[in-house]
Design a protein that fits this description.
With 722 residues, this protein is an alpha+beta fold. It is built from 20 helices and 22 strands. The chain is 45% helix and 13% strand. InterPro entries: Bact_TGase-like, Papain-like_cys_pep_sf, TgpA_N, Transglutaminase-like.
């Protein structure tokens, strides 16, 4: 192999080695083999043209044209002339694919699926980088500057990777670049004469390397050391689904601190995932899971640009955890135990768990942040595949306890009621208008929640432009469309303008039952909600987001349960009693004697004058029939509606939704009033709890709810099993 061909091969290998850093970002990795093939053809064409002409311009131009033809054939050959020539239709198709790829990059979390658009970005980007490397290192014999495009390729991969780029991929990219430098140096030396195959140490007596070689080795060692050390001290993107925090700084029992970044974009990406990948599975002894919110972190600092957690000190994990701040013994609580298992791909620095946790049993390097009662991994510890058990409290305050809560401490008021000067005045004005006439902080909080969730005309939409600053809140209040982050941030900011301590929690809703007694939490269960502080109760969850999560019972009006109805329940012996005797005639006046009264009440058979009052009997009969018909109309309508719903017509999705509506209406018939703001999953859990369903009945209802969710949100609804 000639020196030039060897150099071209090393340029091809160096580009592929740097491209390997992109592998953790997408799955599967078949795109890399496609890029390797196109790069190989591009490199071979350059080698052939360079042998034919001494000028470098024809080689670069030919390689660029061949690369374009190859990309056209691979990606848009159906719109190209003769399958390879990029005409107007092919250019338009390229533009559509690039737009799709850009949108997909923003939608999907890592590892993203290799859509056609993402594949074009990956393969096309690697081919362009390969062309630049080949041009610099082979055509113009400048291997050192060729490291710049290789560095750009690796930097993009490392910046997007959830782990900031692993050592393996760095070594691959660095090894490829060093191989390219060695090949270029050997080719340069070969022009001066013969290159000895022995080691450099044999070039001088005594086995020592000549000064230029020693200097080169030192430069290489220093450069490699800088390349390894500098990325370690520079800030980088963290890992995890909702990457809300950096890792703790400091070791030992002395604590250290923890700081965090805004999780807004990551949460929106999770909600827009087409595949609801499982994040956690858990089992619990709680009676109901509708309120089982799994909190990751609390965002308590609003600087006008975004909501972030304050920098806090962390300590070793205590067992049990300290008492819950602000919680009075007079408030009803129930201790529940929940066992969790995180998915093997889910690498999150913060530990999802119910709030407030009382004790956590987990292995690994986990630290405790007391203010938010959260656990954070230390020295690289993440949730990847961990198993843990949490004892938590289900806090059940009454509306009266919340309404009569005393004023919080000055420290709480100072830290959790501040708003930035950049917050538009419309936020505070809207908060005052919505809560006008409210008796206290609790009633103001409930009015804010109800205004967002049902009365204010807001619409839930995860495609709305993300934003968490002051301007984004004002825009959300005007447009009235957004997803959970907008609702939570806006309600918390408005509560603070009313001097109600508030913060925002980020985590997951309860998930869904999988039919085997376990609950499954997926990417699309990611959620954000506001927490407001009430003295004696502590941090209290509210739910302003329509169609997401569950509205807390302490914010709902008290409704009589089916078993506490004011009307007396019918008794079995009532049906056996004889019907009442006919009432006495209106013309029977007391005091005229029983005989006369009896004669007026009972029809005679002797043909006496007057006979039966036929007109009155017919009128009474008609009235009775009309009243019976009116009373029977709801039952007749329900029967007809049930028959139409269950007759099996329409597509599978329509049949599933019809069955779900019939199930909720049947629950209504039995006294379980529907909640318009509840999701399908929450409604099912509520019917199971209030209807005291157990065993197969409860599982059947959860299966129906899962099928209804698929019919509502899946691109192609599939019939539920069972």
């Amino acid at each position: 192999m000639s020196g030039q061909a060897r150099l071209a091969f090393c340029a091809w290998a160096a580009t592929l080695a740097a491209a390997c850093a992109l592998l953790p970002l997408v799955a599967p990795a078949g795109w890399l083999f496609q890029a390797a093939l196109l790069l190989g053809v591009q490199s071979a064409v350059g080698t052939v043209v360079r042998r034919a002409t001494p000028s470098g311009v024809p080689a670069v131009a030919t390689q660029a044209v061949v690369s374009l033809l190859l990309l056209t054939f691979v990606f848009v050959r159906g719109d190209a002339v003769l399958g390879v020539l990029p005409g107007p239709d092919a250019v338009e198709a390229f533009g559509a694919l690039l737009a799709q790829g850009t949108a997909d990059v923003g939608r999907f979390s890592i590892p993203a699926p290799v859509t056609d658009g993402i594949r074009l970005l990956l393969v096309g980007g690697v081919v362009v980088i390969g062309l630049l490397v080949d041009m610099l290192a082979v055509t113009y014999r400048a291997a050192a500057p060729a490291g710049l495009p290789l560095l750009a390729l690796y930097s993009v991969a490392a910046g997007l990777s959830p782990e900031g780029g692993s050592l393996l991929w760095f070594l691959c990219a660095a090894g490829g670049y060093l191989l390219l430098l060695l090949a270029e140096g050997r080719d340069r030396l070969s022009r001066w004469g013969r290159v000895f195959g022995g080691g450099f140490g044999t070039a001088r007596p005594g086995g020592t390397a000549p000064p230029p070689v020693r200097t080169g080795r030192r430069i290489g060692a220093v450069a490699l050391g800088i390349a390894l050390v500098v990325p370690a001290v520079l800030p980088s993107l963290g890992g995890g689904l909702l990457d809300t925090a950096r890792q703790g700084r400091g070791t030992g029992s002395g604590g250290g601190t923890i700081s965090a970044v805004n999780p807004l974009v990551a949460l929106q990406d999770s909600l827009n995932q087409p595949d609801n990948r499982t994040v956690l599975t858990y089992t619990t002894d709680a009676e109901s899971t509708s309120d089982m919110y799994l909190r990751i972190v609390a965002l308590d600092r609003f600087d006008g640009t975004s909501w972030k957690p304050s920098e806090r000190r962390i300590t070793d994990l205590p067992r049990p955890l300290p008492p819950v701040p602000g919680l009075s013994p007079s408030v009803g609580t129930e201790r529940v135990t929940t066992s969790f298992r995180a998915a093997g791909w889910y690498a999150q620095n913060w530990l999802p768990m119910p709030y407030p946790a009382a004790e956590v049993r987990i292995d690994g390097r986990w630290r405790f942040e007391p203010e938010g009662r959260t656990l954070v991994g230390d020295r690289g510890q993440t949730t990847r595949g961990v198993r843990y058990e949490v004892d938590s409290l289900v806090v059940r305050p009454t509306a009266r306890q919340l309404a009569q809560a005393p004023a919080p401490s000055p420290q709480i008021m100072e830290e959790y009621t501040g708003v930035p000067e950049s917050l538009p005045s419309v936020v505070a004005e809207t908060a005052r208008n919505v809560t006008e006439g409210a008796a206290g902080d609790y009633e103001r909080a409930v009015r804010l929640q109800d205004w967002f969730s049902s009365q204010g005309g807001f619409r839930y939409d995860t495609q709305v432009k993300a934003g968490s600053g002051s301007a984004a809140i004002a825009r959300f209040l005007e447009d009235r469309e957004g997803f959970c982050v907008h609702f939570a941030f806006s309600m918390a900011a408005m509560a603070r303008t009313l001097d109600i301590p508030a913060r925002v929690a980020v985590g997951f809703t309860a998930g869904a039952a999988d039919g085997s007694g376990r609950m499954t939490v997926g990417l699309q269960d990611a959620h954000a909600w506001p927490e407001l502080y009430f003295e004696g109760v502590g941090w209290t969850r509210f739910e302003p987001t329509p169609s997401r999560g569950s509205v807390p019972e302490y914010t709902q009006p008290d409704l009589p349960s089916p078993e506490q109805s004011d009307a007396p329940a019918p008794r079995p012996e009532d049906s056996a009693r004889p019907l009442p005797e006919p009432s006495e005639s209106e013309e029977c006046v007391p005091g005229q004697g029983t005989e006369d009264c009896g004669a007026a009440a009972v029809p005679r058979d002797d043909g006496a004058a007057g006979g039966l009052p036929v007109g009155r009997v017919l009128l009474v009969a008609a009235s009775v029939l009309l009243a019976a018909g009116i009373l029977a109309l709801p039952a007749l309508w329900r029967g007809r509606l049930r028959s139409r719903r269950l007759e099996g017509g329409g597509d599978p999705g329509a049949r599933t939704l019809a069955a779900w509506r019939e199930a909720t209406d049947s629950a209504w018939d039995l006294g379980i009033l529907p909640q318009e703001s509840a999701t399908v999953r929450t409604a099912a859990a509520r019917v199971v709890r209030l209807g005291r369903l157990e065993g197969e009945a409860a599982e059947a209802l959860h299966r129906l709810a899962t099928a209804a969710e698929r019919a509502l949100y899946a691109p192609e609804p599939r019939p539920a099993q069972g």
